[in-house]
Amino acid sequence: MSDLADDKTRKDLLNRLRRAEGQLRGIQRMIEEGQPCLDIASQMAAVRKALDSTYVRMTVCFMEQELSARLPANAAKGAALGEVLGDVQTLLGKIR
Amino acid sequence: MSDLADDKTRKDLLNRLRRAEGQLRGIQRMIEEGQPCLDIASQMAAVRKALDSTYVRMTVCFMEQELSARLPANAAKGAALGEVLGDVQTLLGKIR
Q: N or C: which terminal CB in chain A sees fewer CB atoms within 10 Å?
């Protein structure tokens, strides 16, 4: 399976992961400070959600890249691929 | 909702989160190096799993702490609370 060629997407993914990393550090601080379990749980759920949407974002970008590469330019444009993939991203975001 | 009083558990949670943080940094490196999406996806799934089991661990420790505090010492011991909660942890680990 190939890598992600689009630089903008890669930057977007990196930013999301960097944010998640910061959130994880925040959770460690919360535990060290002895904050309530419920607050820690909320933050952990937030990181999980952030990772899941990063995963979906990567998958959809991969789809776009691979389909575009395989379809003739006109077909990809005519099929309004971007629109379909936007919907796919929304759908995948609901299930995970 | 109260915090986690048990120091050993807190250290365990902190270690797990620190490891997950390291995994997230590894994923960022993979993206920067242009590694295949499938490999990145596997690593992201691993972090998700690690976070989920950390969440379950925290929840079960919380249960143990709160139940022990509310039950008379004999009752908690007689009910073999630790055993039940070990099973609860296994069950929660399967569903998430």
A: N
Whether B56 and chain A come into contact, CB under 8 Å, resolves to no
ipTM, 2 dp: 0.86
pTM reported for the whole predicted model: 0.86
Residue B72 contacts A where some CB pair is shorter than 8 Å: no
B46 touches chain A (CB under 8 A): no
Q: In the 8-state DSSP scheme, what is residue B79?
A: T
CA-atom Rg of chain B in angstroms: 17
The distance of B44 to chain A (nearest Cα, Å) reads 7
Main-chain dihedrals φ then ψ at residue A34, nearest 5 degrees? 70, 35
- For B5, name the nearest residue in chain A, comparing CA atoms only: A34
* Residues of B whose CB is below 8 A from A18: 28
Three-state helix/strand/coil letters over chain A: CCCCCCHHHHHHHHHHHHHHHHHHHHHHHHHHCCCCHHHHHHHHHHHHHHHHHHHHHHHHHHHHHHHHHHCCHHHHHHCCHHHHHHHHHHHHHHHC
Beta-carbon-side half-sphere exposure of residue B79 (alpha carbons within 13 Å): 14
Average pLDDT, chain A: 90
Q: What is the pLDDT of residues B1-54, one digit of tens each?
A: 788 888 999 999 999 999 999 999 999 999 999 999 999 999 999 999 999 999
